Amino acid sequence: MPKASPFLSLILLLLITIYIAHGAAGDAVGGDPWQEPEVAQQPAVVLAGEWQLLHQNTGVSAMHMQLLPGDYVLMFDRTDSGPSNISLDALSPCAAAATTALAGGGGAVDCTAHSVLLDLRSNALRPYPLATNPWCSSAALLPNGTLLQTGGFSNGDRIARLFSPSTGWVDLPSFLAVRRWYATDILLADGRVLILGGRRQFNFEFFPHDDAPPQPTLFPFLEETTDMDAEDNLYPFLHLLPDATVFVFANDRAVVFDPYNRAPLRRLPAIPGGVPRNYPSSGSSVLLPLRPDSPSHAEVLVCGGAPRGAYRLALRNGTFAPADRTCGRIAPTDANPVWVMEEMPLPRAMGDMVLLPTGDVLIVNGAAAGTAGWELGREPVTYPVLYKPDMQLGARFEVLAASTIPRMYHSSATLDTLGRVLVGGSNPHVGYVFDNVTYPTELSLEAFLPPYFDARLDGVRPRLVAAPAEVGYGEAAAVRFEVPGGAVSGGPEEVRVAAVAPAFATHSFGMNQRVVSLAVGTVAQLAAGLYEAQVAAPPSPSVAPPGYYLWFVLHAGVPSSAAWVRMRPLGAAT
Fold it and tell me: Which residues, including other chains, have CB under 8 Å from residue 215's CB and lie 6 or more apart?
């Protein structure tokens, strides 16, 4: 199919924008909360991308999602929303407890699972018992591949948990110095995890602890950025910068923070417009890909959110304010950072931003009106948008093919090993509700295939054959791949390798996701269609913290499936 003309693409974007804006305005003063949501008419032009349904019912609504080494995806929900739709194993301890309770005339015991593990290779689901409540919690993948998961609600608010497919969940009782609910975790260059914020917690701590008993360190910036009526600074956006400092964004402001000396280094300008970007206004943010030709330069992108006061309007008056459509981009490593503002084709709150191996950003899920919170969002935005950071300002956005499933509050999205984006969750209710509501609890799991899955690109699509299982900082590594056509299109300069750190996705933020482009040296042909590229591993743990990455080969801009490669911690034995 010939590529659509720029004029036709512009007309399409205008039509979609007019539809969304009209829908948001029409629902801005309440309306019937039980009416069926309007569904946009399919545009005349076929949009890029494709949706696949992987599971109609995973058993749990994926409030939290994490890709794990070995090609597993962990999805879990809160434990206090009532029974889920998937039972624990009949031999689990819960089953015995339920039998004992019934025999003794006691109340019912919940023997359903609130976490499931998806095996990407077989598409099979396995339930796991979850003892404490991880509602609105945070997490980071440790350098050894174990998931550290922290906080939550009620009996889980001071718990640290460890998860691996072989052990399941292991609780570390009372590990946290304070209660953590809506906090953010970030893996640091030295392999520790910084745990920052949470509701009414203007402080941070580390995993593992460096003092006993653990003591939190005050972080006044979080108190300064708290709105009295809605907070608007929960789940702060944290990004590790290539100089080992941390970018912290809360509400509409940012600082650069030195986690080792435990102090802010400098304040950055407030993002123009005054729109809060953190929960419950719930915009999203990513660290744009780091490049080998400028290893000390980093840029942060922040998109969407809800206007100040939107939470109060929706909660008290049933008025659902239109979501914001702006993005701000800033280079916090510059001497004098400034925000460069852009506009998305569609307004969006509660969207998820997912870094792709191409270096582009997929923006998916969310609503065009209202805010995060129980029943407080309207006008689902089912069209993903692709952001291309290397294009010129004004030409960076592309609207992609729509899903048929609204993904509202408590949705999640993450990149998988195949280069797909897994999309799940959506539950704007206190419990699981499937009938007589505008947006039912959603248990399905979809995969969105970005435009690079177009079959017309199969002739240049590389297949990764071999990559190192482990590599040290700055080391040379060989990556072998095949090209279907037999010859590298356009020469060796058309070959790139990207290392992608998998995200912990929840509440519109992918914690710890990052893309590091690797320096490619020679590309040698070993046989017909078989090539070996010599690449340089990331130069330091501040560019790529130790742990597991997805290495993708890109040929002519088209990525392969990925191999898992572990970045060896400094000082570790080879």
Answer: 177, 205
> pLDDT by residue (tens digit) across 391-406?
999 999 999 999 999 9
Contacts of 14 (CB under 8 A, 6+ apart): none
E-assigned strands of 31-174? 50-55, 64-68, 72-76, 115-119, 124-128, 138-141, 147-150, 160-164, 168-172
209-212: long-range contacts, CB 8 A cutoff, minimum separation 24: 209/175, 209/177
DSSP percent split of the chain into helix, strand, coil, nearest 5: 10, 35, 55
Q: Which CATH number fits domain 461-567: 3.40.50.2020, 3.30.70.100, 2.60.120.1200, 2.60.40.10?
A: 2.60.40.10
The dihedral built from the CA positions of residue 91, 62, 514 and 362, taken in this order, carries a sign that is positive
- Give first-to-last CA distance, the chain, whole Å: 50
Query: How high is the mean pLDDT of the chain?
Result: 90
Q: Give residue 214's identity as a one-letter amino acid code.
A: P
Within 445-529, strands assigned E span: 445-449, 463-466, 470-471, 476-482, 495-501, 504-506, 509-511, 514-527
**Ordered alpha helix ranges (H), 115-272:** 220-224
DSSP 8-state secondary structure symbol assigned to residue 351: -
Residue spans per domain, the chain: 461-567
Is 0.85 surpassed by the pTM of this model?
yes
What residues contact residue 22 under an 8 Å CB cut-off, 6+ apart?
none
**22-44 pLDDT, tens per residue?**
333 333 323 332 233 343 334 44
Residue 312: pLDDT over 70: yes
